[in-house]
Each structure stands twice: as structure tokens, then as C-alpha cells.
């Protein structure tokens, strides 16, 4: 969901996990001139066609081929604990975005899937505090952003499995703790 805390969570996890890097879907938006406009004059940013998804997939595959040379900073995580000992050879890529599980070429790549949710009113409130380029036009949230979120969420629920749903109204610390613990469990499984 837009303004659910995806980037904040990813950045905090990166600081806590060894050899961790982030690829953000927001970095693959097409320029405004290439984004379609609907009959109401809304720029259709909340659809897969507004993104260079092939480029995103290529970036992920490039990272996977050579994570050690990807520019990942291998400094000690802030939260060094027994769970992270002997992880020099482990590389973690966090891919964060709002339409990740609706793009078929990505579906085979995930070890873990997290989906942040927000109720309509909270999402609209948070969205209203952000400044976008181009700026949201009046009615854009209700006319495009929220309906596209619901559409893609329904599609994802029909097609994606093993998704961990996270309540975006919980504190950043609570969300971080939940996902961090889950990743540590996943790392233990992968090391066996």
C-alpha cells in the first residue's frame, strides 16, 4: 500500500542485516511523459505499465549473479547478535515496492514476501502529508491510487502464496522486530 512504510522498513532492516542491499521499485518509474493519462486527466502511476519492470528484473538478476561485487557495504550490522555470527558468505537483497507480487517474472525469486496494509483513512491521511512530483491532483487518491491498490491486492491474493501480511498501523519498531525475527529464522533454515 502507498505510504505503508515499505522504504522505512527496508532501510532499517538494511542497517541490521549482514551484507544487505535494497532495490526499490520507485527507482524504475518511467518519466512523466511516458506515463499514460486516463479520461479524468489522472496520470496512471499505480500500474505496472508506469514502471520499467524489465529493467528492475534485470537489476535483480545482476545482483543475484554477483552479490559480493554489487556494492553492498559489508560493515558490521548495528544489531550484531549470536543469530548473525558466521554470515560472511550470506547476502541479502531486499526488493521493496508496491506492485512486486503482480509481476510474474519476479514471482520465482522470493524467499520471503511481506505485504504492508493500511486502512483507507490512514492511507489517505499519510498520502496527504507527502509531496510528489508531479503533485497529486484533486481526487487522485480516491479516483486512482486507492482503487488500483485494491485491484492489485485482490490479484495478488488470488495468485501469490506465502505472503506475510503486516499491519502498517503498528509502530515501526514492532514491524521491524517482526520482519527481522522472521528473516533470522529464514537465514537459519538456509544455513542448514
Automatic annotation (TrEMBL):
Task: Tell me the organism.
Answer: Lophotis ruficrista
Q: Which family does it belong to?
A: Belongs to the uridine kinase family. NRK subfamily.
Q: Which GO terms describe its molecular function?
A: ATP binding; metal ion binding; nicotinate riboside kinase activity; ribosylnicotinamide kinase activity
- A biological process term (GO) from this entry: pyridine nucleotide biosynthetic process
Chain's gene name: Nmrk1
Q: In which pathway does it act?
A: Cofactor biosynthesis; NAD(+) biosynthesis
Q: What GO cellular component term, any one, is given?
A: cytosol
Q: Which Pfam families match?
A: AAA_18 (PF13238)
Xref: InterPro entries: P-loop_NTPase
Q: What is this protein called?
A: NRK1 kinase
Amino acid at each position: 500500500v502507498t505510504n505503508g512504510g515499505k522504504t522505512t522498513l527496508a532501510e532499517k532492516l538494511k542497517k541490521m542485516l549482514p551484507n544487505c542491499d535494497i532495490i526499490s521499485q520507485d527507482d524504475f518509474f518511467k518519466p512523466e511523459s511516458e506515463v499514460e493519462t486516463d479520461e479524468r486527466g489522472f496520470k496512471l502511476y499505480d500500474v505496472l505499465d508506469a514502471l520499467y519492470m524489465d529493467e528492475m528484473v534485470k537489476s535483480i538478476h545482476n545482483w543475484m549473479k554477483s552479490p559480493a561485487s554489487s556494492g553492498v557495504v559489508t560493515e558490521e550490522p548495528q544489531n550484531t547478535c549470536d543469530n548473525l555470527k558466521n554470515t560472511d558468505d550470506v547476502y541479502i537483497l531486499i526488493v521493496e515496492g508496491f506492485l512486486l507480487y503482480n509481476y510474474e517474472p519476479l514471482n520465482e525469486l522470493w524467499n520471503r514476501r511481506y505485504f504492508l496494509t493500511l486502512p483507507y483513512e490512514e492511507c489517505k491521511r499519510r498520502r496527504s502529508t507527502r509531496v510528489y512530483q508531479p503533485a497529486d491532483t484533486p481526487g487522485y487518491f480516491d479516483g486512482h491510487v486507492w482503487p488500483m491498490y485494491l485491484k492489485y491486492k485482490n490479484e495478488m491474493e488470488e495468485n501469490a502464496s506465502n505472503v506475510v501480511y503486516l499491519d502498517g498501523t503498528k509502530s515501526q519498531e514492532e514491524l521491524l522486530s517482526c520482519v527481522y525475527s522472521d528473516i533470522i529464522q529464514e537465514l537459519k533454515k538456509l544455513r542448514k
